[in-house]
Automatic annotation (TrEMBL):
The keyword rRNA-binding does not apply. It comes from the Eukaryota. It comes from Stomoxys calcitrans (Stable fly). GO terms for molecular function: guanyl-nucleotide exchange factor activity. PANTHER family: RHO GUANINE EXCHANGE FACTOR-RELATED. One of its GO terms (cellular component) is cytoplasm. SUPFAM superfamilies: DBL homology domain (DH-domain), SH3-domain. Residues 3-81 form the SH3 domain. The keyword Metal-binding does not apply. InterPro entries: DBL_dom_sf, DH_dom, RhoGEF_Guanine_NuclExch_SF, SH3-like_dom_sf, SH3_domain. This is DH domain-containing protein. Residues 96-214 form the DH domain. Keywords: Guanine-nucleotide releasing factor, SH3 domain.
Length: 214
């Protein structure tokens, strides 16, 4: 078995003709789950075929966990070595990829600063000794898992994207590795209406945060 769990790009359209295969389009991004070959080395030498044309890899289309199957190795390549992709030359494509990653990093860093500002300005204020008792006791209702989300973006996700900033085609590994961690945002969205309801019905808490906003 060769290297598994690589992230590769499909370099040509491929139509599946077997039940264990999958139809792909040029430009699709796939995750390699397993590698194999249908022929022995001696058969390849005898026929004169390139091992890349006889090997088949099990792949899963990124973003669609239900879509996976065996495909020829020769239709897959590391996007950083692709000479053509979506009609652009390699230099242009590489530049565009790095620009996208740079924008992602800039946006994530700004988002992280905004999250940390909420933590520093409001959550820490609730922890202070002079905060109203009713507000301190209701911290979990008001903020839910907000602080956990802030720490995730400023310390974990941002570092993961930074790690692959010079290898744009590999940054998807960060998303795959942290896929389940993004569920914390769902949890926050589910509890946020309770926070709004609490602030609307508790005058002391509402006034406390209004003062902090000014």
């Amino acid at each position: 078995m060769e290297t598994a769990f690589d992230i590769l790009v499909v370099n040509q359209d491929f139509k599946s003709e077997a039940t264990d295969s999958v139809t792909l389009q040029r430009g699709d991004i796939v995750e390699v789950l397993k590698t194999s070959t249908e022929t022995t080395e001696s058969t390849v030498k005898k026929s004169g075929a390139d091992s890349n044309t006889t090997a088949k890899w099990l792949v899963r289309v990124f973003g669609d966990n239900a879509k996976e199957g065996w495909v020829p190795r020769n239709i897959l390549e590391d996007s950083s070595t692709a000479s053509m992709l979506n009609g652009n030359d390699k230099e242009s494509v590489d530049f565009q990829k790095k620009a996208v990653i740079r924008e992602l990093l800039d946006t994530e860093e700004e988002f992280g600063r905004d999250l940390q500002n909420v933590v520093d300005r409001y959550i820490k204020a609730v922890d202070a000794a002079n905060a109203p008792r009713t507000v301190r006791d209701s911290k979990d209702i008001i903020f839910g898992n907000f602080q956990q989300i802030a720490e995730f973006h400023t310390k974990v996700f941002n570092d993961g994207v930074q790690y692959y900033k010079d290898k744009p085609n590999m940054v998807v590994k960060t998303f795959l590795r942290l896929e389940r961690d993004f569920d914390m945002h769902v949890k926050y969205c589910k509890t946020e209406p309770l926070a709004q309801e609490y602030l609307a019905s508790n005058k002391e808490a509402f006034t406390f945060f209004q003062v902090k906003i000014k």
